[in-house]
Design goal:
This protein is α/β, with parallel strands linked by helices. The chain has 17 helices and 15 strands. It has a domain of 244 residues: Rossmann fold (3-Layer(aba) Sandwich), CATH 3.40.50. Bound molecules: pyridoxal-5'-phosphate (PLP).
């Protein structure tokens, strides 16, 4: 077995196709429904906000989808991302486990998000769009789309969740540097935003509210489309570059994972790493696959599997997913990118079928693991990604307890260089835990 800590690929080994698990599912997904009629959605229903090529990918029957050359040219700026073996963390934990992490923080925006931002901007440009509107929680997705739009000569409008807008001014400046227009959400620019502000002027915002604003913006401007950074099938598809590379790199390390871990907001970094391994599970031989979410916003572990809206103002299609209710406004935890009431329908389905597991942590133990990681491996992780670190550390400690080795692979989805205020709060003892209050969902879920 190699003694190396870093496993790198050549440019020629970057995947040239995305992996689509839809045709391999043991049971098909329930269709998305039109928000007005509650009938299954047609591709035409989505055309006011998405380009046809992305709509086709959303329902694609093909196991592989070629990555366009123009997208490959941009991927090559930072892909393939490195895979590391966390030998110093292993030693600190005194564990027989081998811990590997796929580091997506080497992209220009600092996370996995450009993997889908770039193709989304590309297909929208080809469809003749002038501008994209989107939401952002932590600011990572907004930065990624601002960059991608700049590469393809598109304008970009970002509705940034109010609490992150205030917590992370430098993310905002990064978006401005790449030429985007950024509004704190809820904003006065949309009907949806004004509605929320009228009821609660001090609203911290949520991804659900910001999505309503961006969808409304796109639907009311013919030259503008909407772009979503997670949840949808085409986003999961684009992110499979992560898992495909990781498999090659684990081969270089001479190991295969017993457990694959990712943090979970809408599911895209987790799905990106895990979906190629899910195909192994369908063949009866895959690893355990573990999604990790905040206990302040526990869609997978405390939500219900039901049809619900993807946004607060009920503008999006109804999708069958694990949800806490579209009107749930999670507490302002620092992992802003994990404050989403719902979840990818594909990954929800796989959880229901038992191919993936989920667990949740509150933010104090997550930051404790982030600090341990920063002090051993050196990288200062994003608060979102630190949920995966916490779970990986606990897997390694369980291996020590049992006295049995296991191979752990997790996605380090981004760096935390713009999250230093959160680190300061933690280090000075001011960070507090929030628990999900629990709620009766019967009133907020649509009757289907
Ligand atoms: C670094 C990072 N990791 C994870 C996430 C969660 O999103 P997803 O579940 O789509 O990967 C975000 C979202 O903003 C993020 O910024």
């Amino acid at each position: 077995m190699s003694e190396a800590s870093k496993f790198l690929l050549e440019d020629r080994q970057i995947p040239t196709a995305w992996v689509n698990v839809l045709p391999a599912l043991p049971e098909p997904l329930d269709p998305p429904l039109h928000p007005g009629t509650h009938q299954p959605l047609t591709p035409q229903d989505l055309l006011p906000i998405f380009p046809m090529e992305l709509i086709e990918q959303e329902f694609s029957p093909h196991p592989l989808v070629d990555i366009p050359g123009e997208v490959m040219d941009i991927y090559r700026l930072w892909r393939a991302t490195p895979l590391y073996r966390a030998r110093r963390l292993e030693r600190a934990l005194d564990t027989p486990a081998h811990i590997y992490y796929k580091y997506e923080g080497t992209s220009p925006a600092g996370s996995h998000k450009p993997n889908t931002a770039v193709p989304q901007a590309y297909y929208n440009k080809r469809a003749g769009m002038k501008r994209l509107a989107t939401e952002t929680g932590a600011g990572q997705w907004g930065s990624a789309l601002s960059l991608a739009c700049k590469f393809f000569g598109l304008e970009c409008t970002v509705y940034m969740v109010r609490v992150s807008y205030d917590q992370k001014p430098y993310r905002r400046m990064m978006m401005h540097t790449w030429g985007a227009q950024v509004f704190a959400s809820p904003s006065e620019h949309t009907h949806a935003g004004r509605g929320v502000l009228a009821e609660s002027p001090d609203s911290p915002g949520s991804l659900g509210i910001a999505i309503s604003e961006a969808v409304e913006d796109a639907a009311t401007h013919p030259d503008t489309n909407y772009s979503l950074g997670s949840v949808l099938n085409h986003v999961m598809l684009h992110q499979t570059v992560i898992g495909q590379e990781a498999r090659l790199q684990m081969d270089l390390a001479g190991e295969s994972p017993d457990v694959v871990i990712g943090c979970f907001g809408g599911g895209s970094n987790f799905g990106g790493l895990a979906l190629p391994y899910v195909l192994d599970r369908f063949a009866g031989k895959g690893p355990r696959i573990l999604a990790v979410e905040p206990s302040a916003c526990p869609s997978l572990t405390r939500g219900v599997m039901a049809y619900d809206y993807g946004d607060t103002a009920k503008l999006t299609p109804l999708i069958k997913m694990y949800t806490l209710g579209h009107d749930f406004v999670p507490p302002g935890i620092h992992a802003g990118g994990l404050r989403y009431h719902g979840a990818s329908p594909l990954l929800s389905h796989l959880l229901k079928l038992g191919h993936i597991e989920a667990k949740s942590y509150s933010q104090l133990p997550v930051f404790e693991a982030a600090i341990e990681f920063a002090r051993t491996e050196g990288i200062l992780p994003a608060p979102e990604s630190s949920h995966a670190i916490r779970a990986a550390v606990d897997e390694a400690l369980a291996a020590r307890e049992e006295g049995r080795p296991r191979t752990i692979l997790f996605c380090l989805s981004g760096h935390g260089h713009f999250d230093l205020a959160a680190y300061e709060n933690y280090l000075s003892g001011r960070l507090q835990d929030y628990e999900y209050p629990g709620r009766d969902l019967t009133k907020s879920l649509p009757a289907i």
